[in-house]
Amino acid sequence: MINRVEKLSLLSEMIAFAMTDENIKSIEYRFLLGVAKQLDISQEDFDYLFEHPVTYVHLKSHSERIVQFHRLVLLMNVDKHITPKQLVKLHNFGLRMGLSHESINRVLDLMESFPNKVVPPDFLIDIFKVQYN
Asked: Which domain of life does the UniProt lineage start with (predicted)?
């Protein structure tokens, strides 16, 4: 399991991603707050991250990085409006996390074929497993 600093880093990264278009929509805020609650982060600490982002902490576990990438994909799709800027930013976040370029591209390509453009977790895991082996 990841520690508190890593959790705050994940949330901070997600907030930065959500603010790609300079503001955060209420649906994105609610989604992020839900993730914070799943990570056992209080709303006060979560709200604090908007003004005081935490430095990026690289997750050691490959599976945790895949889970975080999936969260970012879900966040990107939550408002059903995907911009080219968001796609580039998502791709860059994936690369920074150490995920394979091919796997990231495969996920982004497959996204179009699923309802609401959300790749199911089992498909996502399989994509990254192929590249990881």
From this structure: Bacteria
